[in-house]
Amino acid sequence: MRGKYLLRLPAHTGPAPLLAGFHGFGQTAEDEFRLLCAIPGSESWFCCAIEALHSVCTNAGNPGASWMSSHDREHQIEENVHYVDGVIERIKALYEVNERLCFHGYSQGAGMAARAALLGRHRSEWLMLLGGDIPPELSVSDRMGRVHLARGSRDRLYSRERHERDAARLHEGAVPVVVSEFMGGHRVNEAYLKAAGEFLEGELSAFRLVP
Length: 211
What we know:
The protein is α/β, with parallel strands linked by helices. Helices cover about 35% and strands about 25% of the residues. Strands 1-3-2-6-7-8-9 form a seven-stranded mixed beta sheet, with helices on both faces. A two-stranded antiparallel sheet has the order 4-5.
């Protein structure tokens, strides 16, 4: 099994939290890496973008990657979670990463982020989902940490109905959630980045206030 990840170290020395991200269908680690690094305040984090294991070719003819395919779905899920666990363990072995972990997923990567949080070995404090569903087979729980659930107001792929359904699942499971809808479509824009930055800063600030 071969994989790829990109990592940016925090601007300061010493221990820092890890922000691990998963790209959308047909994208690459570079796409998610640019997203993570563009979030205001992310310079205080280790920012890691993990690339999916399955190669695809987009409709435009560009090479990319996918977290899932229709073949041998259960095995792929197990393989993906094991792969992500390994990436996080490697980073923790090499760098001063503290115990605070946030998973971020965009579009298809939202499902992967939720699986990493609920099925992986590394417990997350936060889970940020943008423009993608929580997989229906997952049982939501506090292993997800505090969730930031976001969509663009004109997103046709992740509809308001699906967004509201995911929010209801989290509320019913007593999972703390911040529901966010920003002006835009199925794309990352400045409005989303601002909301994401405010979420991360607010969560870290809350931790700093705890004795």
